[in-house]
Amino acid sequence: MFKSASIRLAAWYVAILMAMSLAFSVWVYREATNELRMGIGAPFVIKLQDRLGRISESEVQALMEVQYADSQRRILFNLMLLNAGVFAVGALASYVLARRTLRPIEEALEAQNRFTADASHELRTPLAAMKTEIEVAIRDPKLSKDDMRELLQSNLEEIDRMSGLAQGLLTLARSGEDPHVKPVMAQEIVHDVLARMQPLADAKKITIKTDLANMRVLGDAKSIDAIVCILLDNAIKYSPQKSTITVSISREDSHGHIAIADQGPGISAEALPHVFDRFYRADSSRTKENVAGHGLGLSIAQKLVRAIGGTIRAQSAEGQGSTFTLRLPIVQ
Ligand code: ADP
Fold first, then answer.
1. How far is ligand 1, taken at its centre, from the CA of residue 207, in Å?
2. Which of 106, 232, 249, 296 could form a disulfide with 212 if both were Cys (CB 3.0 to 4.6 A apart)?
3. Cα–ligand 1 centroid distance for 267 (angstroms)
């Protein structure tokens, strides 16, 4: 589809180029032939008479016409050559330019298609599970009230998971739109998140230690809040009971580092490069099966980080906890 669109766009470019080149050629041809007619006059006759002695007026006229037609032909030939060159180079350059122009649109469309395919796949799985459960139940003539309640309970859980997924997809689609990047107090934002998340940590008897340097960083308060929220939520989700999470803000070069380190199961070397991918969940029995999630949190975080011009890094090894670091420029 994009190949034919590129060809069509290139054809338009070439058409415009050729229209300009042909108009220019017509003008050059007219000017040159006019000049020629004036130039071939007297000097040409004198030159001829020098060489051939006295010749008649009509002979001079005939020779002048021959000379004129010959020069006209040469000008025409050169202009045609020039136009052929313009066409060849122009067509090639136009195609390259058209491909370049359409590439970002093509990439955006591809990303959108991938996103739709991934999302529908993720939604199809719980729907299929629900359908099977219901079909089996309908076919069972001895289905008791308790069985029915159990089935409905299981369906309700699937529905909860799906609405969580739908919410996550919506957040992912909208995240990073129009961030208001300006100097913000990192400490204040992190404090707010910590206050909100404390009950979750308390429920697992997790201690949150803090070491928060005071600094102004360049970013969007809402986005930083959401990123820290995702990272802290993951740290709490994946950490064992009674462990410790350390949240710190420190300065390195001209950047502020907001780091969240946990004593959880860690992430294997194979899984680590993929944790920011959409729908990716590390294939460890301790995380994937036991902890609820859709593999969207870190991809939302990364999208938000990119939109505010920061970077995010994950450091981890299996069995040794994980540290996620958000890096933003410091404002003096
Ligand atoms: P979710 O947590 O919903 O699965 P995320 O995108 O937030 O999705 O995380 C992707 C995967 O990265 C998780 O499934 C998990 O395997 C791994 N992960 C993220 N944070 C941690 C952490 N603090 N400790 C261990 N594994 C983590």
1. 20
2. 249
3. 8
